[in-house]
Structure formats: C-alpha cells, structure tokens
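Weekly sync, protein design subgroup
Attendees: M.S., D.O., the rotation student, P.L. (late)

Item 1: inverse folding check
M.S. brought a backbone from last month's batch and wanted to see whether the design step gives back something sensible before we order anything. D.O. pointed out we never logged the input encoding, so this time it goes straight into the notes. Structure tokens as presented (511 positions):
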C-alpha cells in the first residue's frame, strides 16, 4: 500500500474526479458518509456534537458530516471559520446544503468568536485543516486548538488532526496541534502517522476507504509504501524437496565478546530457524562452552583471543555474513571488523556494535561494500549520521545513507523502515511493543543472514526478514502477552510465522 504526499493526495482526488467520473462535491459527500458511519458506530445520538469547520475542503467535509449527523438525530452545534471571507467551492456548497436543513445552531465566524462551552460527554468534530496544511497554525486558529485541547470533551479529527502536517513536522509548533482521541483518515495513512512522537495527536487511527481510483493509485509513483503479507508471500523461495544442508547455504555469524555470548546465540539460532543449511559462529574462546551448549546445531569457530574478536575469517566458503551482535568496540575488535568487511566475498549484514564501530571510525563508512544491509535502531543511526530533531529527520538521514552507500538500511522501530538504494522506503506493518526487549535486534540480524545464505537477494532478504521478524513477535505476543515477551520467544515463533505466510500464499493461489 502506497503512502502519498499531500500533493499526491490532491492529484489522486483529481484523477478520481476526472476518471470515475464524479463531481468533487459528490466525492466529498462520499467521504462525509464514511466519516459519519464511523462516528455513529462509536457515539450514540445522546452525545452532543460540536463541529469546527475550516474554510477549505476539510471544512467542507466537516459541514457535510454536520448535516448527516443532524439527519441521524444528533444535536449538533456547527462553527464555520471564514475569517478571510473566502471558502473553497465545495466548502461553500456544503455550507448552503447545511443551511437548507435549517440547523438550530450554526455560526459562521468572520471576525469575533465566542467559543462554546466544551464539557465532559461532548464530542468535538475537528474539521479545521486536513492534509493540505503546509505551515504551523498561528493566531486565532492556534488559540482555538489550545482551547479544544484543554477541554474534557472527546475529539475526532477528519483526515488529519488540525495543525499536524502530512509529512515533515520538524519545525512545527506542537502546542498548536489538535490532540485527537480518534483520527479518521481518508483512503491511506499519511507519512506523519507512522512516527512515534505524533501518536499523541492522532490517538486511535482508523483508515476509511472512500473509493478513490485504484488505477490512479497504481499510476502515481510514491517513495513510501506499507509492507503487507501479499507483498512478502511471492518473495518466499520454495524449498527444493531434494535440498540438503550443502545447498541451503552456509552462514557466518561473527558475534559475541566475552560476557555477550547471548547476542551470538540469539543471532545464530535465528539464522538456523530461518532456513540456513549451516551456521558457523566465530566468537572469542571463552564463549565456547555456552555456545556449544545453547546452539549445538551450529559449527563453532573460536577466535585466538579469549574475550574479544581479533582475527578476520576467510569468507570463501560462506554465502552470507552477519556481524556485530555483542561484538564490543575495542580498538582491536574495530580493526578486525573493518578487515573482515574488506575480506568479505558474500553479502553482509551489519548490526549493533558493528554500527557503533562505524560511528567511531567515520572514514570507514565509505569502505562498506555495495549492497550491505545495515540495521540500526534510532540511536545507532544518530551515532553514525548525527543527532536528529525527530523521526522525519531521522528517516531522511537513513534514506540518504542508503542512497549514498548503495546500501539497504533498516531503521528499526514500531514501523521499521527499509530504506532502499534507489531512495524508496518500505514500512513494516508487523511487530509490537513487546519486541522492545534486549536481543530483538540480534534476532533480526540472524534472520536476514539466514535468508541471504539460502540465496535471497539483499532486497528480498531485508524485506522478508523484517516482516517475518515482526510477525513472529506478533505471534509470540498473542500467546505470551507483550510484557513477558523476550527475544528467544521471537525465534521460537519463527516456524509459525513461516507457516502462516505460506498458508496464506497457498490460499491465495487456490483462489
């Protein structure tokens, strides 16, 4: 599913109007009906409603909703803000439609505004500004937003909470953004809705299908997409019934300083659970007993040093290299790390301390092989690329890093973002807050390395690995709850994640 910018949303609206064909006022009515249905399912007619409508098309939506709620038996107060003496054509048309219904409580605000009393048990419909906003709210609208936010009434926002811009809110004024309890967004999520700091404004999110042109959506190219099961299923490689461990790939995991053997264990177990025929783990000598005990299926290759990694491994016999979990950042290990990357003849996944080493040795970043997969969490990315004000800036830097290095960068989070070398970003839709636990990233490294070893390309391995990682976490949380979930639970549920994806794939093929 694509995520469109505010300009592309207007383009899609216009395409639908032209090619359905449908009048813009009728498309607005369709949206208003969907919004009204969502409201009436949630709030009974006994709840008093206050509608705040702006002068643009978001205000037109709000006025149409006001009329439909009145027809459904709700007591509605409507305030239309027309302080500049100009309404959009469809907003003006919906004003006239509303007035034809002879509403008992309608106020068009042109100069002074006497705000209504907003009380507990009331519902506010926020239709001031939608996805077209391109600057922070100020003046009277900012004061109105603060008044609404200070009230005890519930708030439902149409398309976007007023004041929140569709993409970049880095320099927005946070006090001047509506804090909605429910946002009813139209047709598609907006980019800003995927960032954690904006959830306080969005509240619960519901996406309403208003029948915008599917053909138009297919034709409009977007830099941002949401990853869904249907996108991942075709990427799954069928397993040859005559396969043996030699044909399913040999993965090398370089991980685990002394005291951090767990990171190596998690990455190696995840690699094997992802289908690799063989996993070899290179780790300090003091980790030997615990690794052989915890992962007896792995081939152990101990470093000459007892507590740190100090020697690079020949990768000639390996199909993939995963490096970084629990590695440590000593100078000896750092030098070994860059030597290992220079010697690598197979696809590489870098995580954790591998990224921290790169952050401390900035010149080495340019030596990374093309097609490398980097999996930073937000702090690791900032160590590499500099401090960021917010998630939009962080995502921008991750995109630029992927383009600059011809790399695949998975910026981890609630909606992990896979940044591709061509500038496109794929947001994951699986995963949950229970996965915010130590070792979860090590598991992702192992999964992607295991997929690479089997012959998946870097883009496919990163895409499938990211989705499977989150899906396994979702299945684990479903059984165990989010609070009790630990990283090894994700590994334990990987088989179920594979089965669920393959079952859906088989069902789709039968259909």
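Designed sequence read out in the meeting:
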């Amino acid at each position: 599913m694509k995520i469109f910018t505010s300009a592309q949303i207007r383009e899609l609206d216009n395409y639908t109007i032209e090619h359905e064909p449908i009048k813009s006022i009728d498309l607005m009515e369709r949206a208003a009906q969907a919004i009204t249905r969502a409201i009436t399912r949630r709030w009974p007619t006994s709840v008093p409603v206050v509608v705040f409508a702006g002068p643009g098309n978001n205000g037109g939506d709000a006025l149409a909703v006001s009329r439909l709620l009145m027809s459904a038996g709700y007591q509605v107060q409507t305030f239309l803000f027309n302080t500049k003496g100009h309404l959009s054509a469809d907003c003006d048309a919906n004003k006239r439609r509303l007035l034809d219904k002879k509403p008992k409580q309608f106020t068009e605000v042109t100069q002074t505004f006497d705000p209504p009393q907003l009380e507990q048990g009331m519902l506010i419909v926020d239709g001031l500004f939608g996805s077209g906003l391109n600057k922070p709210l100020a003046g009277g609208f900012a004061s109105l937003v603060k008044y609404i936010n200070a009230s005890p009434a519930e708030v439902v926002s149409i398309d976007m909470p007023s004041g929140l811009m569709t993409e970049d809110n880095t320099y927005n004024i946070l006090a001047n953004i509506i804090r909605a309890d429910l946002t009813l967004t139209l047709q598609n999520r907006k980019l800003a809705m995927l960032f954690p700091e904006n959830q306080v404004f969005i509240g619960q999110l519901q996406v309403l299908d208003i029948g915008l042109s599917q053909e138009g959506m297919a034709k409009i190219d977007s830099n941002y997409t949401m990853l869904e099961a249907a996108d991942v299923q075709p990427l799954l490689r069928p397993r040859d019934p005559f396969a043996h461990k030699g044909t399913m790939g040999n993965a090398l995991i370089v991980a685990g300083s002394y005291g951090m053997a767990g990171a190596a264990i998690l990455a190696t177990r995840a690699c094997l659970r992802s289908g690799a025929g063989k996993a070899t783990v290179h780790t300090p000598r003091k980790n030997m007993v615990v690794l052989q005990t915890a992962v007896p299926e792995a081939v152990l290759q101990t470093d000459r040093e007892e507590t740190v990694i100090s020697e690079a491994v020949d990768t000639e016999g390996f199909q993939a290299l995963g490096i970084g979990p629990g590695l440590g950042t000593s100078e000896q290990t750092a030098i070994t790390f860059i030597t290992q990357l220079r010697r690598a003849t197979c696809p590489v996944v870098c995580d954790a301390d591998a990224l921290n080493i790169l952050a401390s040795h900035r010149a080495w970043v340019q030596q990374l092989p093309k097609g490398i997969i980097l999996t930073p969490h937000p702090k690791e990315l900032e160590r590499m690329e500099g401090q960021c004000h917010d998630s939009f800036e962080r995502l921008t830097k991750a995109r630029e890093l992927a383009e600059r290095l011809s790399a695949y960068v998975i910026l981890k989070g609630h909606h992990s973002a896979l940044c591709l070398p061509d500038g496109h970003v794929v947001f994951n839709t699986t995963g949950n807050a229970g996965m915010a636990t130590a070792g979860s990233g090590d598991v992702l490294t192992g999964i992607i390395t295991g997929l690479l070893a089997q012959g998946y390309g870097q883009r496919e391995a990163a895409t499938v690995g990211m989705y499977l990682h989150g899906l396994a976490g979702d299945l684990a949380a479903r059984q165990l709850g989010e609070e009790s979930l630990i990283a090894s639970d994700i590994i334990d549920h990987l088989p179920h994640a594979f089965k669920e994806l393959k079952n859906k794939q088989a069902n789709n093929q039968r259909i």
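Discussion: The chain has a mean pLDDT of 97. Residues 67 and 274 are 55 Å apart (CA to CA).
Action: P.L. to compare against the previous round before Friday.
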